[in-house]
Amino acid sequence: MDNQGIFKSWVPNWVAIMVLFICLLHSMILLGVYSSNVTYAASFLDIEAEDLQFAMSVTYGTLLATILIESRFSSFFPTKNYLMAVFSLLAMTIVVSAYVSNFFFFLFLRIFEGILMALPVITIRQLLIERFKSKNAIIIGFSFYYGSLLLATPFIMNIAVWFLDRYDWKYMLYVSGMLHVLNVSLIMLTFKGHRITKKIPLYQINWASYFLVLTSIISGAYFFVYAEKKYWFESSQLITALIVCMVTGGLFMFKELSVKRPSFDFDVWKYANLRIGFLLFFLFYISRATLGLCHAAMFSIWNWDPARVAEVQFINGFGNIIGLVLASLLLMRSVAVKLIFMVGFTLLAIFHFWFTFLFVADVSLADIIIPYTLQGIGVGLLFVPLILYTTSSVPTKLAVSSGIVGVAGRFWGSTIGFCIIQNAVVFLNKKHFFKLSQFVTPENTTAQETIMKSSQSFVSKGYTVDDANELALKRIFSTVTKQATLLSDMEIFTAMGYALVVLIVLMGFNQHLKQNFNLFKSKVWIS
């Protein structure tokens, strides 16, 4: 891609970098505006948390599928007109979603947003990389882009808390739409209108493969997101979704393997580094899913207000920045990716073991700040090296396919990670609640004394004896529920910590993660 002259003559390089980076933040907005405010967004749409998770999976899954055909659109239209059109449509779509109360129509908008989210990313990211006059341009560009994605949740959540204290939820969406209008204005002001790629006709787009893989992704996401809620294979809907996923996925594979110029080349799986990278991405996202349990504990166990939880997430974001900077420096110095991976996953293991002892009735910010920061550093340290490792070991002709594999690892890791954590929480909560509630019996003098004291406190406040006894029972069972949650979180974090230790040991013995692997002599996915 030749971007020489894409910016007007008066635009200095630092302004061009700033404009491109601002334009990349649309991904942060689309991924963060709902994921960072699950409770508010779910209540606004009158849906449950699983529904919102599925809607987010639909957006990311659509992005994954759209990468197959993205290059055809970006090559057909002049860059300036193409980007302005995409960001204009995004602005309108987000504003329209502020008036949508029907969940199915909301899902349709999320599919459309997923398409629009995928279309400008590779073009803008490549333009950004080429603005850095350095042999490390790819590392810098990737760190900028993926750093913004990692910081999406704390950044958007803090904005949301401020807005929701003063305005209605809709104003969050209005502001999100206006930020895309800002992108349009910046592009109009700084870009020239000429073409930077060779024009390729649109009539050869492989629509059949696109719709097959999109259907497979969405139906697979539906199965995993709703698995616990609908009791797995007891639900005919889940069975149907799994069958559709497998059939359409199989048809996609058959079609791609049978054509001369496939949209996705399955030869990419012949490369060991790519297979290992996909697996590591998958496991990495599953390990990240436990962070939601920390935030849930802040709300429901430690009773922190939303503003405080939002501010605390900046600590984790600060750790992300430290990790990204460290990863960039290590990559620039050609430090072995095997060592980077082992250090990053070790930090995640330490976080899980440390936090196991913090799931108690009450903690202070000083208690969690170190492990919470270590988790951020570990995530930041792993993200970009994982992307480069996964995509850099294949020939240039397979670059797009290797990039799709990387995105697929992130998508399925986050989706299945949500499923695993959700099922583990429900199962363990039921087990511990049943065990603990067995102690709340007439024969247990300690429990009866606690109920009596609680009942007397309610009577002293003016409640009748019957109402006081009922409230006292509710209070003690609320305590039992919290204790069951804490015990469940401890077990999950302990299990995840040991799983990460096993992964680190296996990486230590893996022959494909070679110490002398040099990223700077490899070809990476740029377009």
List the helices and strands and how they pair.
Blueprint: H1 13-35, H2 38-45, H3 49-76, H4 79-97, H5 103-129, H6 137-150, H7 152-166, H8 169-190, H9 207-225, H10 236-258, H11 272-288, H12 291-300, H13 306-332, H14 337-356, H15 365-391, H16 399-437, H17 445-460, H18 465-509
Helix pairs in contact: 1-5, 1-6, 1-7, 1-8, 2-3, 3-5, 3-9, 3-16, 4-5, 4-8, 5-6, 6-13, 6-15, 7-13, 9-10, 11-15, 11-16, 13-15, 14-15, 14-18, 16-18, 17-18
How does this structure look, described?
With 527 residues, this protein is mainly alpha-helical. The protein has 3 domains: 1-205, Up-down Bundle (Growth Hormone, Chain: A); 207-262, no CATH class; 266-526, MFS general substrate transporter like domains (Growth Hormone, Chain: A, Up-down Bundle). 76% of the residues lie in helices and 0% in strands. It contains 18 helices and no strands. It has helices at 13-35, 38-45, 49-76, 79-97, 103-129, 137-150, 152-166, 169-190, 207-225, 236-258, 272-288, 291-300, 306-332, 337-356, 365-391, 399-437, 445-460, 465-509. Helix 1 packs parallel to helix 6 and helix 6 crosses helix 15. The longest helix has 45 residues, at 465-509. The termini are close together.
